[in-house]
Amino acid sequence: MSSNSNSGPWDMxxxxxxxxxxxxxxxxxQRGGRVLLVEVAEKIGGTLLVSxxxxxxxxxxxxxxxxxxxxxxxxxxxxxxxxxxTIDPVLARLSIFNAADAFDWxxxxxxxxxxxxxxxxxxxxxxxxxRYYWGNDFGKSVLDVLEPAxxxxxxxxxxxxxxxxxxxGLMQDRDGIVNGVELIDGEGxxxxxxxxxxxxxxxxxxxxxxxxxxxxxxxxYLNGAYEFAQGDGYDLAVAAGGYLRGRDKYLSxxxxxxxxxxxxxxxxxxxxxxxxxxLPWEIYVNAHGQRFVREDEPSIDVREHALLDQPExxxxxxxxxxxxxxxxxxxxxxxxxxxxxxxxxxxxxxRADSLESLAEDIGVPGGALAKTVAxxxxxxxxxxxxxxxxxxxxxxxxxxxxxxxxxxxxxxxTVGVAVNESLQVVRPDGAAIPGLYAAGEILGSGQLQxxxxxxxxxVMPCIVFGRLLGQRLVEF
Length: 476
Ligand SMILES: Cc1cc2nc3c(=O)[nH]c(=O)nc-3n(C[C@H](O)[C@H](O)[C@H](O)COP(=O)(O)OP(=O)(O)OC[C@H]3O[C@@H](n4cnc5c(N)ncnc54)[C@H](O)[C@@H]3O)c2cc1C
Prior knowledge:
This protein is α+β, with helices and mostly antiparallel strands and 476 residues long. The chain has two domains: 10-247 and 412-473, FAD/NAD(P)-binding domain, CATH 3.50.50; 257-407, Flavocytochrome C3, Chain A, domain 1 (Alpha-Beta Complex), CATH 3.90.700. It contains 14 helices and 18 strands. The protein has helices spanning 21-30, 61-65, 72-82, 89-108, 139-155, 209-216, 232-239, 300-308, 321-326, 336-345, 355-362, 366-382, 445-448, 459-473; strands at residues 10-15, 35-38, 55-56, 132-133, 159-162, 165-172, 178-185, 190-200, 244-245, 257-258, 267-269, 283-285, 314-320, 349-352, 401-407, 416-417, 424-426, 432-438. The strands form five sheets. Strands 1, 2, 5, 6, 7, 8, 17 and 18 form an eight-stranded mixed beta sheet that branches. Helix 3 crosses helix 4 (89-108). The two termini are 33 Å apart. The model has no long low-confidence stretch (mean pLDDT 96). The structure holds flavin-adenine dinucleotide. Residues 15-21, 38-41, 46-48, 50-54, 166-167, 201-203, 224-226, 228-229, 232, 411-412, 440-442, 456-459, 462 line the site of flavin-adenine dinucleotide (FAD).
């Protein structure tokens, strides 16, 4: 390590200039702190560059203006209901009770919120109250307010931004107090920076297939996370004495259509498996050739948890020619002609003249698939489905037969660094590591959402916790 130093000591060193790091640095600088903001990528923004950026906050001014009655208490109650009590109650409370302040601040900065917000609409289990917000340019709309606020402080000389620079280590004194970071720039030059409060806002590990598999036990199926979400902060926290939690909270979404090729794969398209948007005509069949959930199950959370029990988080959408001709195309934004073409060209689209050859083609037991379809057809004839499905317009008996492969997975990190209510990184015995804090996706969806996808409970806690750290750590 060279002795080259970045003119510390800093009042705060922020590792990662993304969703959490930007507001952390801004707030600390606004309070008069000298902040070093280190970013491995050449540009700032982190996951906001790819995220939908949907947020939830209760008790906001925008809700009041639109006559929506809401409160953090109600939000917390709903988050507990949706996560079945598996969310970290301390972090949930800290986020939810400070979310309105953070969202109102974003609105003051000019956040370009979509007209229909606050909304009840969500890709996840719905809230009962309209408290869901997103920008016209999704995650980039969030960045459009966070970046100028940070740049203003940079222009005033309160923040020094180092892009293209990776934090590779933490400095700790003999008493274990974290008092700086080790850095390497794009040209391989090493340096260090000393400072009082080191804040790990370096995001998750969902672009790192090896770490993903090691930490949550599943392959990284989709190439959908921000490329610099490599989990560096996890290694830094653990090396300083911290530990990880939340592995048991892994949840897969209900599937994507993926491109051909090795994992992680890019997304080819998305099947509309949302019964509220398109009632299912098809059946969903697992690797054993069996149905595993009623396809019109209204709860997305129930569907997602059902998929979690299936081998390789995978299933086939199976249908026949009569469904192909009559039903609205199942792939979002695809015409019937595009679908027909996909059966000639794509690995995940399969067609066969009989159920037996379809089964062989997709690698499920032939007898089982035929039996599953026969049972479904009997249910259609009797108007009573074994899994309780109510939308069964036609039976599946007109060749050719079709199957489309859906792959579950997640684009965020379940496992997270353990922290206390002040966001200090803690050791396994609960003792805080002095000088070291963590916030954002590095805390893991297991802590921020529990074993459910809770609408807006990643981006909003990032911004809230970033702000709180910036406000609380720098005393002036
Ligand atoms: C496609 C997609 C859609 C999503 N949609 C939503 C949504 O609608 N609502 C929601 O709540 N959540 C959503 N999420 C999740 C949410 O966007 C993220 O959890 C959140 O933005 C992460 O913020 P962060 O600050 O923790 O990390 P980031 O915003 O990724 O910031 C971390 C920064 O640290 C940098 N960094 C990493 N390692 C180092 C290092 N060693 N040294 C220096 N810098 C480093 C990275 O380059 C990055 O800029 C989505 C995620 C994805 C991928």
